[in-house]
Structures are given as structure tokens and as C-alpha cells.
Amino acid sequence: MTSSKAKVLQLVDSYCQNAKAGQLKSFSFLIGAANGTTKELKRNNIQKQCEFLEQLRQQKTRQGQISILSMDAGVSNFAFSKFQLCDNSPLPKLLDWQKVNLEEKFFQKVKKLSLNPVETSQLVFNLTEYLFKSEPIPDVFTIERQRTRTMSSRYILEPILKVNILEQILFSNLENKMRYTNSTLNASKLQYTVRSSDPHRMTSYWCIPKEETPVGSKKSKSNKHSKDSRIKLVKEILSSSILENNSRSPTKFVDFSDLWGNRIRDALSKKRSFKLCDILEIQDSSGVRKDDDLADSFLHSLSWIEWIKNYENIASLLNSTALSKDQCKKVFDYCENKIQSLKYLQNTYNSN
């Protein structure tokens, strides 16, 4: 661990030692850390997440940029997006965004994937190789964490099992590809990280539950609202980011490569109520034309970008040899102001 990295993490820990439970909760929220039920657990979770974000911050400083590819796992509707954040730009740039029916793409419509280890291994190998065609190779791969099942789950549908297996093997393949390549003589070294991405943390960062939702409403209705909110939010982020010229505007969150900028403008010009699928050049292997998978992969990647940026801003406020009360107040104020700006953004989008 470098001395500068150790110093920042020490200052973060000092801040957490002096912070109240509510302040720790705000800090956790803005860097994507697990919240925790006690102050000690909150501090431990913050420190763990900050160690990873500090690693990414230093990597971004060395390279001048960092890229993240986030995946929403599914056999029929596998989606991923890739963003790049550069030192000389306040906005991340969308580099790639795809949705794939894995069976159609890698089995050429010959058959459906069965719970057969040979077929699953081959499909995930092909998928892993396909992800590396999206250059540049990402610095971070994230895979949306699937729900776990317990013995109380009497019936587990086969598609759910397939997605859980897909997540586990894909995570393993990505890590083992790097291990194998880096142990091979004369091979170009691979340097990236693979992380599970918590869907609850992503959703809570971007979506405010509707106050009018009845307390006793069914879970399915709540999930439907959350899904619709995420799709709407992504559409609004795309629209406002294309139409807004000011890169510092609170409603401009992303920038685009020429390819994606043109696709989004084209979709906006054709109809007011566009689908995210309209932006992609849909092929036979692109899966069902539904938007939630695309929205989730987009927001997972953008969440990690946001958490890195928030951490960078907090680290800059703690840039000294010792923690002062003034610095603590600045960090707390930053967290509160950022949360308020997110609420304003979400309310603005929800009112449209």
C-alpha cells in the first residue's frame, strides 16, 4: 500500500470514528458501501469499499482514465454497458451497450441451454471471449448479484437456476482468464477486477419509492414500480444528456461516443416515447425487446462511476496530514448536498 493511499484511508477511518450513525449512513450511500446495522459494522463496510475505490482512483490517475463494464445476467436477455471516466472530463462516456440472447448467439438457435455442465461451460466460455471484443478491455467487470435461494424456497424454476449458475461461472471465468494469461510466458498481461454488484444498492441510489404506495401493497407491485422507474430514469438521463450542452448541468450525467450519440439522437427524433431497445441496432441474437435489462446494466455501470467520483471528491476534502473539525463538516456537507441533488434529480425525472 502506498503512503498516499494509506493516508487517505486513515483519514477516512478517522472521519468515521467521529461521525454519527446518520452521517455514516450518508457516507455509505454515496460510495456504494453496505449500510450495516451497527456503527462498527458501518465503519468496517465503509473502509472496505474505500479501499477498493482508492485502488480505482489511483489506477485512474496513473492511466488518465478508467472503464467499467457492468452486466445484467440472463440467458435470454443478457445485457451489458461500458462507461469510461477520464481525468480531463467531469462526465463518463458511454462506449458500449448491448443486449444478447445467449442461446441464439452461441448455439445458433439449434437448441436451448439445458442444465448440462458441458453446454453451460461452452456457452460461458464463448460469452467471456465475446466480452473481450468490446475494446478497450475494462478495468472493472461487474456482474449483478442474483437473489440467493434457501431451503424454504419450495420450488425453484429452471430459468432461475440457469441465471444463478451463469453468474457464478462467468465470475470464475473472468478471474481465471486473467490468472491463466498472467501466468503464461510472453503473454500480454491482463489487469482488471471482477466484482459482484448489489442490485439493491444500485436501485436505492437512483430510485426514490413513491410515497403514495400503500404500506400493504404487494411486493410484485413494488418491483414493477421500481423497474418502471429505472427505465424511465435511464431514458431521461439519455434525453437530457443529449439535449443539454452544459457539461456541468445537474441533469447531464453522461457523454457519448459519436456512435452512441447519433443513435440516441436518431431515436429521439423518430418518436417522443422511445424504447431503449430502439437505440440499439437490434439483431436476431438481441433477445426480447424489453428495456429493464438494458436499464439495469446502464445504471449499474453508472452507479460505480458515481461512487468513484463521490469518493474522489471526499478524498480531496480529506487531503491533509491530520483530520480537522472543519474537514469533517465539509465531508458531511458534501454528503448532504449530494444526496439532496440526487433527490432533486429523481423528483425532476419523476414529475416529467
Automatic annotation (TrEMBL):
Asked if the record carries the keyword Chaperone, the reply is: no
User: Which UniProt keywords are listed?
Assistant: Endonuclease, Hydrolase, Magnesium, Metal-binding, Mitochondrion, Nuclease, Transit peptide
- Protein name per UniProt: Cruciform cutting endonuclease 1, mitochondrial
Pfam families reported in the protein's UniProt record:
Ydc2-catalyt
What this protein catalyses is:
Endonucleolytic cleavage at a junction such as a reciprocal single-stranded crossover between two homologous DNA duplexes (Holliday junction)
Q: What EC numbers are recorded for this enzyme?
A: 3.1.21.10
Provide GO CC annotations from the record. mitochondrion
Start and end of every Mitochondrial resolvase Ydc2 catalytic domain? Answer: 68-314
Q: How does it assemble?
A: Homodimer.
User: What domain of life does the UniProt record list for this protein's source?
Assistant: Eukaryota
Q: Which Gene3D superfamilies match?
A: Ribonuclease H-like superfamily/Ribonuclease H
User: What does the UniProt entry say about where the protein is found?
Assistant: Mitochondrion
Query: Would the keyword Transit peptide turn up in this protein's UniProt record?
Result: yes
CDD domains this protein is in? CCE1
UniProt-recorded Gene Ontology molecular function terms: crossed form four-way junction DNA binding; crossover junction DNA endonuclease activity; flap-structured DNA binding; metal ion binding; Y-form DNA binding
